[in-house]
Design a protein that fits this description.
The complex is a heterodimer. Chain A is elongated, with a radius of gyration of 28 Å. By secondary structure, chain A is of the alpha/beta class. The longest helix of chain A is centred in the C-terminal third of the chain and has 19 residues. In chain A, about 35% of the residues lie in helices and about 20% in strands. Chain A folds into two domains: about 80 residues, Metallocarboxypeptidase-like (Alpha-Beta Plaits, 2-Layer Sandwich), CATH 3.30.70.340; about 260 residues, Aminopeptidase. In chain A, strand 9 and strand 10 form a beta hairpin. In chain B, helix 1 crosses helix 3. Chain B has a single domain, classed as Roll (Nuclear Transport Factor 2, Chain: A). The chains are: A alpha/beta, B alpha+beta. At the A-B interface, strand 13 of A face helix 1, strand 1, helix 2 and strand 6 of B. Chain A: It is found in: Apical cell membrane. Chain A: GO terms for molecular function: metallocarboxypeptidase activity; zinc ion binding.
């Protein structure tokens, strides 16, 4: 298909062009309607490939001059498709943090970021997913002779919440790129170790790229392979199965066949249990909603350190809003959202981790799970 | 009086926004909720629960301006099959979309082949600019569905437009057959819904049954 640029000179030419448009039902790009064609004004006309020669002949016959504006419309359309992924673009210095990345690239990124900042970062095996993929976490730890408390952060427990893994990657990058120059970060690292799990639900994340963008659960099969997926954030051992869940595999909040029935859940729980006396803060990142949620989901009964939890959360929300004005609400899941049981955040708190939070990142429903990539940067900057 | 962050207030606000989008939305106007400022609940015996809301909204095409409105949402007792009664009062005038509406209308009417599109936005959140009016009409259509199907135990948002097909008509209305994916926050389910929307620049939108 081609697009021609024509400037009709006489009224007769205008009439002929109008005739051409209606006879061949041509796609007029400018002006909008044939009746708006005027002598002396620009005309842009798209002609299907099969008619190009015939139309040009007719224009020549009537002494109407034209030039080809777009010689191949399809090529232009193809070129303007976003995300031309070039596979050579995998040096960590060139990693594009303002785009969403498939799991393969995230795996590569972990390797490279560890190599680049090997004095601080180590990559560790956490466990395996149902589909046998390896779960890795990154440990950011400044060598020192004193033992340090730990802050754990996991992203991507729900497959469709793409902004969450994007944030974990951004977070790691920010810390590593700035730890030498930013006094806040360097002081942080003197006293604390950061453990980051960029994608918890790897199988689900891959499935949301390849099959169903709005998938949420993991990919373990139930009922003889006729039904897939447990909601990993209902699968932890905190009032498991009591409220806000389904025991039916086909439900999107299916809590699994028992607490920690899923390999992903076990991998995380086992590790956190083993380190629990050193873990100061458990963070789990989700979207959407713009919320900082405190325990619990299964009851409105406040946790023992509720005042401290709320104060820290409120200060965090205020700092977040200070960046771009994005407003976040703070409170317990049971009061702000709905009742649920088996969440990782509730479980972390019940085993003794004092500060335990769920972050629900942007937005509040306008784009929901399908947050445009151009919001990755502001979302991550404000959340930092 | 309810804290605006309480889930029941947020759910009622979502219904009010859905209703308002149906009533006042169009290819050139998409309203979204910026903040729920105040919420009150009244339990009316033998009738239902009524929420009084003060909402702060913005027009996606004119984000610097604030649109204030008040809304009343009445959920009927027991009767789960009837839609909540909603009344919304917008303070001040909404920005006129007459020009944009006319341009959109003419563009669609001039298409030789009926418009068809899928996955708006795409997986990465992108909407091609020429499809933004269709996207906003999907907000109108889904606004109706959300209003009609909400209860005190649901909170719906439009997750994605799965499919849209224009259907040419012999009268002057534009017709779009949508398949929208609605995300229900409480159950976390994503539910596909077929909805046909008729729209005309002067007459506005209506969902065809």
């Amino acid at each position: 298909d081609q697009v021609l640029h024509i400037v009709p000179e006489t009224f007769q030419q205008v009439q002929h062009l109008q005739l051409l448009c209606s006879t061949f039902m041509l796609d007029l790009w400018k002006p909008l309607l044939p009746e708006d064609i005027r002598a002396g004004e620009d005309l842009h006309l798209r002609i299907p490939a099969s008619l190009v020669q015939e139309v040009k002949d007719s224009l020549d016959q009537h002494m109407i001059s034209y030039r080809v504006l777009i010689p191949d419309v399809q090529k232009l359309v193809d070129q303007s498709m976003p995300r031309k992924r070039s596979s050579h673009r995998q040096v960590s210095g060139d990693y594009v943090y303002t785009e969403y990345h498939p799991m393969e690239e995230i795996y590569q990124w972990m390797t490279q970021i560890q190599q680049k900042y090997s004095e601080l970062v180590t990559q560790h095996f956490l466990g395996k997913t149902f589909e046998n993929r390896t779960m890795y976490y990154l440990q950011i730890s400044q060598p020192s002779n004193k033992s340090k408390k730990i802050i754990w952060m996991d992203c991507g427990i729900h497959a469709r919440e793409w902004i969450s893994p994007a944030f974990c990657q951004w977070f790691v990058k920010e810390i590593l790129q700035n730890y030498k120059t930013d006094p806040k970060i360097s002081r942080f690292l003197q006293n604390l170790d950061l453990y980051v799990l960029p994608v918890l639900n790897i199988d689900g994340y891959i499935y949301s790229w390849e099959e169903d963008r709005l998938w949420r659960k993991n990919r373990s099969p139930y009922e003889n392979g006729t039904c897939y997926g447990t909601d990993l954030n209902r699968n932890f051992n905190s009032s498991w199965g009591s409220v806000g869940v389904s025991f039916n595999c086909s439900s999107i909040i299916f809590c699994g066949s028992g607490p920690e029935s899923e390999p992903e859940t076990r991998a995380v729980a086992q590790f956190i249990k083993s380190k629990k006396s050193d873990i100061l803060c458990y963070l789990t990142i989700h979207s959407y909603g713009q919320l900082i949620l405190t325990p619990y989901g299964s009851t409105t009964e406040p946790p023992s350190n509720n005042e401290e939890l709320m104060q820290v959360a409120k200060e965090a929300a205020a700092a977040l809003t200070g960046k771009y004005g994005t407003s976040y609400r703070v409170g317990s899941t049971a009061l702000i959202l709905y009742s649920n049981s088996g969440s990782s955040r509730d479980w972390a708190h019940t085993i003794g981790i004092p500060l335990s939070y769920t972050f629900e990142l942007r937005d509040t429903g306008t784009h929901g799970f399908v947050l445009p990539a151009n919001q990755i940067q502001p979302t991550c900057e404000e959340t930092m | 009086e309810l804290p605006p962050s309480h889930f029941s207030a947020a759910r009622a606000a979502a219904v009010a926004v859905g209703y308002l989008r149906y009533l006042r939305g169009g290819p050139g106007r998409g309203l979204e909720l910026r903040e729920l400022r105040r919420a009150r609940r009244q339990d009316i015996s033998d009738v239902g629960h009524k929420y009084y809301l003060e909402l702060e909204l913005e027009d996606v095409s004119d984000k610097d301006r604030t649109v204030n409105c008040t809304a009343e949402v009445l959920y009927h007792l027991g009767n789960k099959t009837s839609a909540p009664d909603v009344q919304v009062t917008v303070q001040g005038e909404l920005r006129s979309t007459e020009e944009a509406d006319k341009q959109f209308y003419n563009w669609i009417r001039s298409l030789e082949k009926e418009l068809v599109a899928e996955n708006i936005p795409d997986s990465h959140g992108n909407v091609p600019p020429e499809l933004e009016p269709i996207h906003l009409l999907a907000w109108v259509a889904s606004g109706y569905v959300i209003w009609q199907n909400s209860t005190e135990n649901t909170k719906f948002h439009l997750a994605q437009v799965k499919h849209v097909k224009q259907v040419k008509r012999s009268d002057e209305d534009l017709q779009f057959d949508f398949v929208v994916l609605l995300h229900e926050m409480v159950s976390q389910e994503v539910l596909p819904w077929e909805v046909t929307l008729l729209w005309h620049p002067q007459r506005g939108a209506r969902v065809s049954q």
